[in-house]
Amino acid sequence: MNFGEELIQSANEALAIAKGEVEPAGVFVPETVDVAAIRKRLKLSQVAFAERFCLPVGTVRDWEQERRSPDRAAVVLLSIIDRNPEGVAKTLAAG
């Protein structure tokens, strides 16, 4: 398999993981996350948290008030934010 084929295969695997169709190898993804706890630990308002991590503030409110639950991709993002908020913020700001 050449580099281009490996890259395409990796992209397809990443898409399947993001869609929740397959589990990533060796990576634990929690079923849910406590969005309010993450936000409060970071000492951010809902608006500041949403802006910092490029999320709609209404979505953050819905998650915290349990009107909606984060989908699998959002759970992964929130888990990464929980572990490395500065890295996520820096990455998003670079885009």
Give an overview in words.
InterPro entries: Cro/C1-type_HTH (IPR001387), HTH-type_reg/antitoxin (IPR052359), Lambda_DNA-bd_dom_sf (IPR010982), NadS-like (IPR047761). Keywords: DNA-binding, Transcription, Transcription regulation. This is Putative transcriptional regulator. Residues 35-71 form the HTH cro/C1-type domain. The protein has 95 residues and is mostly helical. It has a domain at 33-95: 434 Repressor (Amino-terminal Domain) (Orthogonal Bundle). Helices cover 63% and strands 0% of the residues. The protein contains six helices and no strands. The protein has helices at residues 3-18, 35-41, 46-52, 57-64, 72-83, 85-94. The longest helix has 16 residues, at 3-18. The chain is globular. The termini are far apart. The mean pLDDT is 89.
Quick overview:
The chain is mainly α.
What does the secondary structure layout of this molecule look like, with pairings?
Elements lengths: L2 H16 L16 H7 L4 H7 L4 H8 L7 H12 L1 H10 L1
Helix pairs in contact: 5-6
